């Protein structure tokens, strides 16, 4: 989301919302709402001003989600499972095979219960 990106780049510049507001000539309230994703679709002019002050491209503010952003959207429990799998040197393929075998076993157990 654009709000998270603005916060990220603003913090990298060690800049307050107030300073960003002054330097972009955008109200602090609007920027704060934008950072909290209350305003999801800011004007192109505002995005260009923010990008210029933060010294990033407009694409960086509007572009596709980064891996970090996608990871932050994951449920914490799922994220923990994935992190454990990654730290245990299990390959993606091995992890996928394990999940598939567990699903087959569950399906088999469920089928037994029906018969």
Automatic annotation (TrEMBL):
Region of interest (Disordered), ranges: 93-115
Keywords: DNA-binding
A Gene Ontology cellular-component term: cytosol
Superkingdom field: Bacteria
Species, as recorded: Salibacterium salarium
Protein name: DNA-binding anti-repressor SinI
Gene Ontology MF terms in the entry: DNA binding; DNA-binding transcription factor activity; protein dimerization activity
Boundaries of every Sin domain copy: 65-103
Record InterPro entries: Cro/C1-type_HTH (IPR001387), Lambda_DNA-bd_dom_sf (IPR010982), SinR/SinI_dimer_dom (IPR010981), SinR/SinI_dimer_dom_sf (IPR036281), TransReg_Diox_bact_type (IPR050807)
Gene3D superfamilies: lambda repressor-like DNA-binding domains
Residue intervals of the HTH cro/C1-type domain: 6-61
């Amino acid at each position: 989301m654009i709000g998270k990106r603005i916060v990220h780049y603003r913090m990298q510049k060690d800049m307050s919302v107030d300073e960003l507001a002054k330097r972009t000539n955008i109200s602090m309230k609007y920027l704060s709402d934008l950072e909290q994703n209350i305003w999801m679709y800011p004007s192109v002019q505002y995005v260009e001003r923010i990008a210029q002050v933060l010294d990033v491209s407009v694409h960086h503010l509007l572009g596709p989600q980064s891996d970090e952003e996608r990871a932050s959207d994951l449920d914490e429990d799922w994220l923990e499972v994935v992190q454990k799998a990654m730290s245990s040197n299990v390959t993606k393929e091995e992890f996928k095979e394990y999940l598939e075998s567990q699903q087959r076993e569950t399906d088999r157990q469920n089928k037994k219960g029906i018969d």
